[in-house]
Amino acid sequence: MSQTIHAPWRMEYIRLLENQDQSQGGCFLCQAVQALGSDPDRRSRRVLWSSSHSIAVMNKFPYTNGHLLVAPREHVSCLEDLSDEQLYDLQLQTVTATRLLKKAMCPQGFNIGMNLGRCAGAGLPGHLHQHVVPRWAGDVNFMSVIGNVRVQPQAMDLLYDELMALIPSITQ
């Protein structure tokens, strides 16, 4: 017997990709950088922190709970276009992201990486970003394998609050 399992949030993501102007004004990462001065905008864009060259945000369409994105503040699509300082800071902020997730969620491992270019799977090919995805033994279950949906065990707003509360303890 065949059953249909719906993941309505996925269509929002698909439409976003189809309709998004990939120039700086339509880029959700550039919009997150612009939101740094406003607490309500930071929260709605799930901005966790920023440094002189990078920004860290929660992924709005996560692979798993706690999926973070670390990106240069500058709208750049190619690694080779980043300065040494930007590259170094991107990696430092990725380390900070893993520290935060270890403290908040106790993952057993991580997937960390970039999709550079549309054919490589980049949903936002104009603004490179690093994925930091916490993983646990057995976190791929029948829902994702058979149903092609993912179950998020915690509301994103609650996780955002938890992560924000822990940031001072990992950046000291």
Task: Provide the fold topology.
Blueprint: H1 9-19, H2 28-34, H3 39-44, E1 47-50, E2 54-58, E3 68-72, H4 84-105, E4 109-113, E5 130-135, H5 142-145, H6 156-170
Antiparallel strand pairs: 1-2, 2-3, 3-5, 4-5
Summarize the structure.
The chain has helices at residues 9-19, 28-34, 39-44, 84-105, 142-145, 156-170; strands spanning 47-50, 54-58, 68-72, 109-113, 130-135. The chain is an alpha+beta fold. The chain has a single domain (9-170), classed as HIT family, subunit A, CATH 3.30.428.
Radius of gyration: 16 Å
Number of helices: 6
User: Helix and strand string, N-terminal first?
Assistant: HHHEEEHEEHH
CATH topology: HIT family, subunit A
Approximate strand percentage: 5-15%
Largest pleated sheet: 5 strands, antiparallel
Low-confidence stretches: none
- Based on DSSP secondary structure assignment, what is the total number of beta strands? 5
Spatially, the strands of the biggest sheet line up as 1-2-3-5-4
Q: Which structural class matches the secondary elements? A: alpha+beta
Could you tell me the mean pLDDT?
A: 82
CATH homolog superfamily: HIT-like
Second rung of CATH, namely the architecture: 2-Layer Sandwich
Distance between the termini: 55 Å
Work out the count of structural domains. 1
Report helical residue fraction. Answer: 25-40%
Overall geometry: globular
Structure description:
The protein has 172 residues and is an alpha+beta fold. The chain has a single domain (9-170), classed as HIT family, subunit A, CATH 3.30.428. The chain is built from six helices and five strands.
